[in-house]
Design goal:
- This protein has 110 residues and is mainly α.
- The protein is 73% helix and 0% strand.
- Helix 2 (27-33) crosses helix 3.
- It is globular and about 45 Å long.
Amino acid sequence: MEEHKENVKASQAERLRYSRIIRQLSQEEFSESIGMSPSGYQKVERGENGISRNMLNRIWEEFRISADFILFGEQENLEEILQSIDQCSDEEKMVIFLYLHQYWILKHFR
């Protein structure tokens, strides 16, 4: 049971780290954006500490990263995402493309 909790915490920490990296932010920049100390944030990203409700709220407010994604790995419906992207300007679509490109590189070539 304890091992399962540690695996869940590690998965959450990995999704949090991924969310920070695709935004090209250091741990210090990300932590300051959500009102945390860098050392406290580092412990969460390493999976040593859990993610608080307040932290999830601040992440949503600052970056629009859903708690469902960080906690459970769940994403919005793909069709809804595609419709949202379709409504973006060309500049916003380029930013999305660059995030996806960086994600691909980090995920497959690290």
